[in-house]
Write a sequence for this structure.
């Protein structure tokens, strides 16, 4: 009952956002000021609610379009908490990754069942988490924010998977775990809502599109550029 009520409240918040959201002042692609309403679109999402994977098939979002002659691109105004170009939202991804990487009793099969997805999908989460950013870049940002480094518990990861994983896959798993821990620490340092994977990436990506697909997972702002220019939380 608690999960059902929480889902109902979430859906009502998202519906209210869609009804009341204001038209953007500028185009996210060209910064043009001529913006048109462009109807709505319905999308689906799997999210984590009260520790349970919930599938939503009727998330309605407003669409807008740039009226500038040279642009004419359109985009979706997403409700808060809905990450772009992701069916499995980052709250669910973070929970599944944490269970698989840090729980000795877990397995790909168990995580896939809990998240209501395939084992191949969980595998893609691991690869994405490993390469979405550079651990050294995250360590530098944590040092800037806290004044001291944060150590990630990586030895247990290597020992756990050593028996049946090749060396390259062990490195991928360790890097994914490293990034997950560091993103959590960085999110806490800047007051982001947990999990850090969702909080930090949502703050960095904001309303931009075509970032962090599984094929090209790196977010340039996290990996290489100065966050002082791209992440308002850092300079507020």
């Amino acid at each position: 009952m608690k999960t059902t009520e929480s889902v109902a409240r979430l859906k009502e918040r998202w519906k209210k956002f869609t009804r009341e959201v204001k038209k953007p002042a500028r185009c996210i692609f060209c910064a043009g000021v001529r913006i048109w309403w462009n109807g709505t679109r319905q999308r689906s999402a799997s999210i984590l609610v009260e520790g349970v994977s919930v599938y939503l098939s009727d998330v309605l979002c407003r669409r807008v379009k740039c009226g500038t002659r040279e642009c004419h691109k359109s985009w979706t105004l997403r409700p808060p908490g809905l990450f772009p170009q992701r069916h499995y939202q980052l709250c669910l991804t973070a929970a599944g990754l944490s269970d698989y990487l840090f729980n000795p009793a877990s397995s790909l099969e168990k995580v896939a069942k809990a998240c209501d997805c395939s084992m191949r999908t969980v595998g893609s989460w691991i690869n994405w988490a490993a390469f979405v950013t550079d651990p050294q870049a995250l360590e530098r940002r944590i040092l800037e924010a806290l004044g001291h480094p944060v150590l990630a518990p990586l030895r247990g990861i290597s020992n756990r998977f050593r028996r049946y994983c090749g060396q390259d896959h062990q490195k991928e798993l360790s890097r994914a775990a490293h990034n997950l821990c560091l993103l959590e620490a960085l999110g806490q340092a800047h007051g982001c809502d947990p999990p850090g994977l969702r909080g930090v990436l949502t703050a960095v990506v904001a309303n931009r599109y075509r970032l962090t697909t599984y094929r090209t997972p790196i977010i340039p702002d996290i990996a290489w550029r100065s966050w002082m220019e791209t992440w308002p939380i850092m300079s507020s």
Q: What stands out?
A: The two ends are 40 Å apart (CA to CA). The chain has two domains: 2-77, 90-235.
